[in-house]
């Protein structure tokens, strides 16, 4: 009987060493930024937020750290079901599982004004953009998600 109880208790615990490591690697919260939709831009959101199906941060221009507000992020699942969400003032967006239940893989596009950037690869199973889009870019990362390769495409000086 004791063995059955121990197995039942252990079975109720969710152990995920990958997410545990990603969560530990996040570091401290930025001073003055409370937990919520504005915290931790550019980090893998699903490492802590298991209620999300997809989440990330969008920046305006490649190589610049300025996040972009009011970008429409459109995700489309393998069955053609699409969901759009808009970034907040720190460039963050998220979709909760109770808002959308997609069938992976997903396709992604980001739109700001007349500029749209479409991701050429698929999102296989992890809806946390920063899992693959690490900063800085490297041979294992495409780098942060951005809308335009130059500021001229967003109405700025090239």
Can you describe this structure?
The protein is α+β, with helices and mostly antiparallel strands and 158 residues long. The chain has helices at residues 2-12, 17-24; strands at 52-61, 72-77, 82-86, 92-96, 106-112, 115-118, 145-148. The chain starts with a helix and ends in a 10-residue tail after the last strand. Mean pLDDT is 76; it is low at 1-23.
Outline of the structure:
The protein is of the alpha+beta class and 158 residues long. The chain has helices spanning 2-12, 17-24, and strands at 52-61, 72-77, 82-86, 92-96, 106-112, 115-118, 145-148.
Mean pLDDT: 76
CATH class value: Mainly Beta
CATH topology: Immunoglobulin-like
| First and last CA, distance | 71 Å
Portion in strands = 25-35%
The CATH architecture designation is Sandwich
| Total number of helices | 2
Class by alpha and beta content: alpha+beta
Radius of gyration: 18 Å
Poorly predicted regions: 1-23
Largest beta sheet, briefly?
Answer: 4 strands, antiparallel
- Fraction of helical residues: 10-25%
Task: For the largest sheet, list the strands in their spatial order.
Answer: 3-2-5-6
Task: Give the ordered list of helices and strands.
Answer: HHEEEEEEE
Domain unit count: 1
Q: Assign an overall shape.
A: globular
Oligomerization state of this entry? single chain
**Tally of strands:** 7
Helix and strand topology:
Elements: H1 2-12, H2 17-24, E1 52-61, E2 72-77, E3 82-86, E4 92-96, E5 106-112, E6 115-118, E7 145-148
Parallel strand pairs: 1-7
Antiparallel strand pairs: 1-4, 2-3, 2-5, 5-6
């Amino acid at each position: 009987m004791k063995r059955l109880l121990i197995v039942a208790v252990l079975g109720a615990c969710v152990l995920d060493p990958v997410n545990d490591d990603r969560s530990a690697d996040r570091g401290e919260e930025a001073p003055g930024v409370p937990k919520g939709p504005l915290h931790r831009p550019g980090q893998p959101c699903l490492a802590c937020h298991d209620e999300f199906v997809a989440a990330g941060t969008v920046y305006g221009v490649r190589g610049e750290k300025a996040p972009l507000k009011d970008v429409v992020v459109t995700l489309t699942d393998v069955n053609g079901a699409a969901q759009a969400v808009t970034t907040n003032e720190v460039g963050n967006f998220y979709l909760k599982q109770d808002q959308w239940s997609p069938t992976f893989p997903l396709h992604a596009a980001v739109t700001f004004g007349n500029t749209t950037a479409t991701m050429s690869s698929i999102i296989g199973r992890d809806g946390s953009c920063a899992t693959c889009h690490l900063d800085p870019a490297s041979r294992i990362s495409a780098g942060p998600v951005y809308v335009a390769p130059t500021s001229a495409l967003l109405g700025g000086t090239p």
